[in-house]
Amino acid sequence: MGRRAFRSGQDGGRGSLRRWALRGTGAGIAALVALGLAPGVAAAAPGDAEIAEAQAAQDAAAAQVGAISAQLAQAEAAAAAAHQSAQIALQEYEERRAAQQAAQAAADAAAAEAEQAAQDLARGRAQVVEFARDSYMQGSTSPGAAALMSADGPAQLLERVALLEAAGTHRVDVVAELTVLEEQAAAADAAARQAVGEATARETEAAGALAAAQQQEISARGQAASLAQQRTAWEAELAAAQQTLYGLQGAQAAAQAAAQAAAAQAAAAARPPAPAATVGSSSGGGTASRPAGGGATTAGAPSGSVVERAIAAARTQMGMPYSWGGGGTNGPGYGLDPDTEVYGFDCSGLTEYAYAQVGIAIGGTSREQYSRFQGSTVAASDLRAGDLVFWANGPSISSIYHVALYLGNGQVIQAPQSGDVVRVSSMWFGSDYFGAVRPTG
User: Does the global pTM surpass 0.85?
Assistant: First the structure.
């Protein structure tokens, strides 16, 4: 990701200097033509002072390009590190936000139960009060007066007295039971509210860390962009200075350059042709070879049709912009600051979308996706199409910062980084390669 891009930038810078050198040699020859010189013809050449001045201007511009290139390399590395930290902070925030929402739902349910228990207790107490009032007004346990007066004999009278006493006692027992339930519901409600408070505090803490990480990434991106603009300006200045210097040097050494060119041509014509070189098998893409390890394979064989459909779903999003925090189960979406205006996917949003289209929920963050399937790990030497491959900046799952979908044949489809798009890339391994899991294994 960021480090590979930085290495390419270094190589490109050295290539630019070589191209400028060649262009400068051409400028010297062009100066000869403009002066009407031919090999072996002497003419007045620029003085040493003039060439020294041009050399100093070129050296100063080259020094500026070198200094800014070094600063830009550091800024790009810092931006890559900030992006990794921001990815981890985003995942932490999303997990804590989900925990807070779950705690809030539990608290709402507990509050509803406490309210119902309070209503039941109030209703039970009202029934006891009503029973006592009726008993007082009738001078006996209600509705005992009528029951006792209508008894057919002593036996039935005693039976009705016992039943009426039990009815009064039962009302009291019900109130006692409702009181206990109401106390338990109130305690559960209080515990749930405390859990909400703790979860909210953790969410707030994670939100603060996320905001800080976002600001660091924005700052790092801005610094890298500013330095890139400065380097571009100084590269143009260096190119102009080199053109001037090489032109003067070429005019001064016209006869010598022409003689050397003629001698080189004669030597090349006399030299027998060299045998054709054997084409090597190096990919030349800067991709490290696959390590022998990468963890043991515990996953079963992948489900072919499911994998094909998941990969096909991911391929439908080719060219979609990278959006930090964007996309998910339902497709692309707007990201988080600084990508609130970018509609697309981040790395885990793309893989979540691909597998959601075949009915497999893999989670919304890269470390959640690894954690969910860590019982189905895959060694680097056993990767198959459909496997999820991960990179991290440390040995723990919490340090995972990137995920891609392996396509087979040494390729992955991924949402790489800010400013890029969903695309197919060569698979790479290195010190930050974490491992792979198989959602269908």
Answer: no
